[in-house]
């Protein structure tokens, strides 16, 4: 069920014509038809194959000369059904009536189309990107969760249904499912990709995130969509010195499970054994306060976002979504402002520690452990929370398998707006972990 689907390699082949877009899409649709019934990564769509082939024919006529083809020519993309995309209904994993969540297409989706990408389809999300799961299963083991809330996007990339997908992260909804599904998940710095066209959960925390199987493909997509991307950092990768790695010791790491910490300690030891400088730095001693502030902020903001819908459709919300909205309604405006201010305070704390100790990239567990069994819940995002709250760029890369043969990821974070440097360091770290 798991198969290789490398974005950069596929994009180059489609642009050059060594891979025909019609042939490629037929192969993908065959794969989707073979496995989608088990994985359920997509929001159901009638005649997906016919639509994609029709759009691909239009693309071929528009770009007959390979030399004029845009960077994502013919690349099918999965998009979490929390974004508005022209031609597709937006339901956000909810039981809302069709059309209630309609609106203008997300601007970055339009950019994808202009770059030659095709929309493979909407992917399954938890209800309004919170904790009520959809039907998606982990392709490594169908009895386990793929994570949430960007479950369909992560599972679809792992299955090779599409080489590029998009989701959102409010706490851990890109990093966690990517780790559980054994792929790369990248959350850029806060607001580096616009959230217009998104059914917002928390305006102060929502990030647009990306999923691929290859870091070269991640760079390709990020360079197109992230505001003011500086390609000089990633283009000069071969001359980059190895980053100094920081381990945030203390109460934060104690939130991981025993097996999760053992796996993480092994990953760090591999990096150190292969020549990386690793510094253990006490961090996040106030992690309980950080966790509380982030949750207060997001609860208050989701209540604000849903205020009008809630009056009309309260009976259509599932229990956990209803609970967070009711909680948010009780949070005062002063409490919300304090929680919002905490984001910049935490970001400053992180960056001051980096400067003081000469740290380039923080490493930490991408999740408390492996993907939990069952699909009634999506796993705990607690290991992702401080990096999301601070809005700093964060990526998870595959870092081995658990004793139960489920993927384990390594979470890496850098200073705010150092997204390019973070991606430039990843090939070396991934190669080290792969052969460690």
Automatic annotation (TrEMBL):
Domain Amidase: 24-423
Xref: Pfam families: Amidase
InterPro entries registered for this protein in UniProt: Amidase (IPR000120), Amidase_dom (IPR023631), AS_sf (IPR036928)
Domain of life: Bacteria
Gene3D superfamilies reported for this sequence: Amidase signature (AS) domain (3.90.1300.10)
An example molecular function term from Gene Ontology annotations: catalytic activity
This protein's name: Amidase
Originating species: Vecturithrix granuli
């Amino acid at each position: 069920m798991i198969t290789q689907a490398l974005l950069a390699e596929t994009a180059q082949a489609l642009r050059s014509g060594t891979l025909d877009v019609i042939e490629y899409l037929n192969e993908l649709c065959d794969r989707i038809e073979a496995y989608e019934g088990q994985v359920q990564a997509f929001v159901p769509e009638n005649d997906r194959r016919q639509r994609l082939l029709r759009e691909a024919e239009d693309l071929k006529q528009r770009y007959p000369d390979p030399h004029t083809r845009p960077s994502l020519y013919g690349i099918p993309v999965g998009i979490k059904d929390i974004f508005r995309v022209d031609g597709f209904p937006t339901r956000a994993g909810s039981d809302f009536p069709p059309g209630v969540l309609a609106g203008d297409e997300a601007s970055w989706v339009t950019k994808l189309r202009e770059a030659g990408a095709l929309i493979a389809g909407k992917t399954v999300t938890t209800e309004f990107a919170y904790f009520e799961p959809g039907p998606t299963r982990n392709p490594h083991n169908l009895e386990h969760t793929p994570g949430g809330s960007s479950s369909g996007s992560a599972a679809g990339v792992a299955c090779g249904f599409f080489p590029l997908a998009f989701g959102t992260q409010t706490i851990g909804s890109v990093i966690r499912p990517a780790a559980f599904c054994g792929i790369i998940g990248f959350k850029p710095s806060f607001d580096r990709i616009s959230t217009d066209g998104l059914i917002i959960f928390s305006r102060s925390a929502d990030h647009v995130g990306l999923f691929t199987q290859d870091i070269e493909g991640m760079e390709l997509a990020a360079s197109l969509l992230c505001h003011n991307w500086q390609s000089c950092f990633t283009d000069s990768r071969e001359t980059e010195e190895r980053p100094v790695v920081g381990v945030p010791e203390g109460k934060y790491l104690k939130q991981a499970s025993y097996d999760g910490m053992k796996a993480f300690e092994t990953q760090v030891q591999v990096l150190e054994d292969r020549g990386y400088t690793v510094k253990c730095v006490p961090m996040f001693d106030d992690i309980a306060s950080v966790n509380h502030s982030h949750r207060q902020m997001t609860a208050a903001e989701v209540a604000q976002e849903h205020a009008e819908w809630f009056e009309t459709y309260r009976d259509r919300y599932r229990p956990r979504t209803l609970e967070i909205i009711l909680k948010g309604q009780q949070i005062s405006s002063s409490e919300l402002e304090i929680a919002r201010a905490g984001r910049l305070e935490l970001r400053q704390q992180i960056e001051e520690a980096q400067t003081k100790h000469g740290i380039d990239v923080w490493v930490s567990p991408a999740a408390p452990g492996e993907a939990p069994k069952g699909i009634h819940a999506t796993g705990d995002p607690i290991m992702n929370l401080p990096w999301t709250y601070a809005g700093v760029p964060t990526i998870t890369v595959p870092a081995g398998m658990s004793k139960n043969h489920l993927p384990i990821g390594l979470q890496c974070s850098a200073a705010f707006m150092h997204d390019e440097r973070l991606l430039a360091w990843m090939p070396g770290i991934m190669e080290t972990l792969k052969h460690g």
